[in-house]
Design a protein that fits this description.
CATH superfamily: D-tyrosyl-tRNA(Tyr) deacylase
CATH class: Alpha Beta
Mean pLDDT: 97
Number of domains: 1
CATH architecture: 3-Layer(bba) Sandwich
Largest sheet: 6 strands, mixed
CATH topology: D-tyrosyl-trna(Tyr) Deacylase, Chain: A
Number of strands: 8
């Protein structure tokens, strides 16, 4: 699994002119699933992201995690993170098929909720418009195979 995690002061996702999810301070997570991913990847990634300390403490150092700042998560499925861009037209053959990807996407949402966080999400497979106010900006890339 891959995730692009951006620290935000607020973020939202709109689907068909309605707000489907909206958070204030926290993480906007763009999440992709690979064909060989499993529930263990979900747990590894959820734990790592939710415990990563990238919020500033009183000394201005990135020393606080999501829980410390009472942050929320906005999780968006984004299979394009597994794009092969060697040619001018990207190939998405390295992304998981929809049934596996949706299952693990939903399990990732549940894994973050089970850790006590408020989670909002997009809709798997939908055309979405995502807005965010990046804080910092701070953006990190996580891959469950490299943690």
């Amino acid at each position: 699994m891959r995730a692009v995690v951006t620290r935000v002061s607020r973020a939202s996702v709109e689907i068909e002119s309605r707000i489907a999810g909206k958070i204030d301070r926290g993480f906007l997570i763009l999440l992709a699933v690979a064909p060989d991913d499993s529930e263990s990847d979900v747990e590894i990634l959820a734990e790592k992201i939710c415990r990563t300390r990238i919020f500033s403490d009183s000394n201005g150092k990135m020393n606080l995690d999501l829980e410390s700042v009472n942050g929320s998560l906005l999780i968006i499925s984004q299979f394009t993170l597994y794009a092969d861009v060697k040619s001018r037209r990207p190939s998405f053959s390295h992304a998981a098929k929809a049934d596996l990807a949706q299952n693990l996407y939903e399990k990732f949402i549940d894994a973050c909720k089970s850790r006590g966080f408020h989670v909002e999400s997009g809709e798997f497979g939908a055309d979405m418009q995502v807005e965010s106010i990046n804080d910092g900006p701070v953006t990190l890339i996580f891959d469950s195979k490299n943690l």
